[in-house]
Design brief:
This protein is α+β, with helices and mostly antiparallel strands and 111 residues long. The chain has two helices and five strands. Bound molecules: FE2/S2 (inorganic) cluster. FE2/S2 (inorganic) cluster binds next to loops.
Length: 111
């Protein structure tokens, strides 16, 4: 299984993905720049991605905590999701996402 991830500079990466892992973990473990500050606890929004239009309806629906957290993110769109809330499965083979602004490790809210 694979996912396709476009990073903050516009480079598209194809990453091997294992079932049961969070999409955020896959992105992080392959060394892409994702802050994911809270480590997957749905408490930071620094794992924010924009999901390709073909894929939005195929994802597990958003829960309230994810919606609330996304309210605090930058550049939130209809296709915004927190990648730590997306669990890899066969159905998501080929998933296409783009890392949203504000997800880089060096980004400002470090202070
Ligand atoms: S890693 Fe913090 S909300 Fe996803």
């Amino acid at each position: 299984m694979h996912i396709h991830v476009t990073d903050q500079s516009g480079t598209r990466h194809t990453l091997e993905a294992l079932e049961g892992f969070r999409v955020m973990e896959i992105i992080r473990d392959w060394g892409l720049d994702i802050k994911a500050e809270c480590g997957g606890g749905c408490a930071c929004a620094t794992c924010h991605v924009h999901v390709a239009p073909d894929w939005t309806d195929r994802l597990y629906p958003m829960q309230t905590e994810e919606e609330d957290m996304l309210d605090a993110a930058f550049d939130v769109r209809d296709n915004s999701r927190l990648s730590c809330q997306l669990l890899m499965s066969e159905e998501l083979d080929g998933l296409e996402v783009t890392l949203a602004p504000g997800t880089q490790r060096g980004d400002r809210e470090a202070a």
